[in-house]
Design a protein that fits this description.
By secondary structure, the protein is an alpha+beta fold. The protein contains three helices and four strands, in the order ββββααα. Strand 3 and strand 4 form a beta hairpin. The protein is elongated.
Amino acid sequence: MQFPVWSRAVSSQGTAKATLGSVNVGVVCGGAYIEAGDVIIADDDGVVVEKRAIASEVVAASEQRILKEEATRERLARGELGLDIYGLRSKIAELGIKYL
């Protein structure tokens, strides 16, 4: 599946096949409580868990973020400085830094 997998530890204990497991119960993984139906999003940078109830809001916010980042990359490609894009000139001036 070419899906990245991370592990905190290695266990040599084998699986149990003589008993039934649990289905649709909450688990704690990496300190995060995950309930049945939660959405797991992962890439090479890490993993995030979102509650199913707000998954559509998260998708919409993610799509807006992608559009914003694409627009910023276009501005940078045209030669605009991040200093100006993010309005940092006034901030560094307040700190007494002179940008040359």
